[in-house]
Amino acid sequence: MQSNLAGRRAVITGGSRGIGLAIADALAAEGAHVSICGRGADTLETAREQLAAHGTTVHAAQCDVADAAAIEGYIDAAASALGGIDILVNNASGFGVGDTEEGWAASINVDLLGSIRATRAARPWLEKSEQGSIIHIASIAGQAASARTAAYGAIKAALIQYTQSQASELAPQRIRVNAIAPGSIDFPGGLWQQRKAANPTLYENTRASIPFGRFGHPEEIANTAVFLASPLASWITGQTVTVDGGQLLR
């Protein structure tokens, strides 16, 4: 099955590492032109070089998606560099943990408001596309109780609900809106690598709780994003696809 994504223009927030970079890489491999943002200049440049190997247009810029003016400026710059926007992937996360003001603020300002602001800025371009696709990266933490990460889970749940409302609102403009809820994803430098070093018991207990007996890989989320962004999913909107190796089953 062909994705037919060649020539499409995709913007991925938080795209310099982990799941975001895997999604950008998968889209570029399918022939899409991509723009990524992140906060670290060195990480962005490394990611840009990796993506450029696919031979499509690559745009990369520093941006803190918690800053409303910054995200608006980034989206405008991305649209200019790519010649428009067909696909928006809201991946950036503040990963607020703990029942603290800081934890809640991080998740609200980045995961939720960052996604809302990026969508608002990209909407005029997505409307011009006539085949626009928005993908929010949620989490299984938003689909069940999350004692260790209450703020993160609650805001991801809000993002899942927002996906449904937004899909209903934007359907007349032929813009599809879906979400992906990853389970525990492990990659070099990522959260679970940090936990493996700091709390190996938690790491092993979590791994053992997943029916497939392993953590997920960023590429497995990216494959789902490619499908949802493509014409193969042309009749799918307002949905949250759980990609967790059965983790929620237990």
From TrEMBL:
GO MF, any single term: oxidoreductase activity
InterPro entries: NAD(P)-bd_dom_sf, SDR_fam
Organism for this UniProt entry: Salinisphaera aquimarina
Enzyme class: oxidoreductase
Family annotation (CDD domains): SDR_c
Source domain of life: Bacteria
Record-linked PANTHER family: 3-PHENYLPROPIONATE-DIHYDRODIOL_CINNAMIC ACID-DIHYDRODIOL DEHYDROGENASE (PTHR43943:SF17), DEHYDROGENASE/REDUCTASE (SDR FAMILY) MEMBER 4 (PTHR43943)
Enzyme Commission number: 1.1.1.-
Species lineage: Bacteria, Pseudomonadati, Pseudomonadota, Gammaproteobacteria, Salinisphaerales
Pfam entry (one): adh_short_C2
Keywords: Oxidoreductase
Protein name: SDR family NAD(P)-dependent oxidoreductase
Protein family according to the UniProt entry: Belongs to the short-chain dehydrogenases/reductases (SDR) family.
